[in-house]
Amino acid sequence: MSGSLPEPRLSARLYGHQAAVRQFEESLSSGRLHHAWLISGPSGVGKATLAFHLARRLLGGSDLESPAGRRISAGTHGDLLTIARKMDPRKGQLKGEITVSDVQPIQSFLHHTATEGGWRVVIVDGLESLNRFAANALLKILEEPPPKTALFLTTSSPGTLLPTLRSRCRPLVLSGLDEADMSALLPTLPEGVLHRADGSPGRALFLAQDRDCLCAGLVERALAGEELDHENWVIVSQIAREPDGFGLLCDLLGETLAKRAREAAFAGNLHLAAGLAERVSQLGRIRMQGERFNLDKAEAIREALALAHQGRQD
């Protein structure tokens, strides 16, 4: 199951999200473009790709072969600053959070004259990863932005953000891509994987990593109430060693629990639905803590699987 997506910075075409583009274009053509845009939507749906698409629009780099387009692709455009989680060189993986030192360069960037005489654009990818100090620093920037400034902020969890931060942004809420766009983007992936991805190309690639169905099988056995024997715990250790194994297992488990919650609510069993929904929320917290603080993944997987047994008892 091979497949890949271009990096958001290098994407030549935007698939889907035309309603969000029209909303932005209307604001731009009015001459009163809002200074901060909160791009939210499911993980892997293309939020960063949209952010770079809009940045290219402002900076005159929509044509990737133009001088501005090439500078954006190379990350050398003087009027574009990108903030995201950085790589931890000691651990060889992304850091768990965006810190205040990561956000501080925005201040000096925005208070220098635009190198090409036009807009200055900042992209903050993964706003939910800001720690408290970084969030407050960004909030101060949003309160008094200089003229001809545009900030594109992406998040998969808008509900976790500071209300004051959300209130200073104009929302662009993204939904999943349709089947045609998904197939065009990822033609080598099986239809079953694309269907389960709910219109998220990133999620489709994520699900396709479970080549031997180790995560899916483990989730199925846990939800069936089977006692996890030594062989299953060996699988847990194997999944924990995979770069995205923990996240994939949490994703599959959350997907199944959420589906059961919807079915229970539709059947009128609100007590069961509420209990399952709470398990989904707990799972989200386990995943966030495990990924942000680099906790022991095998132990975090055990904790996640324990929710499956609790969910059966609701």
TrEMBL record:
Pfam families: DNA_pol3_delta2 (PF13177). This is DNA polymerase III subunit delta.
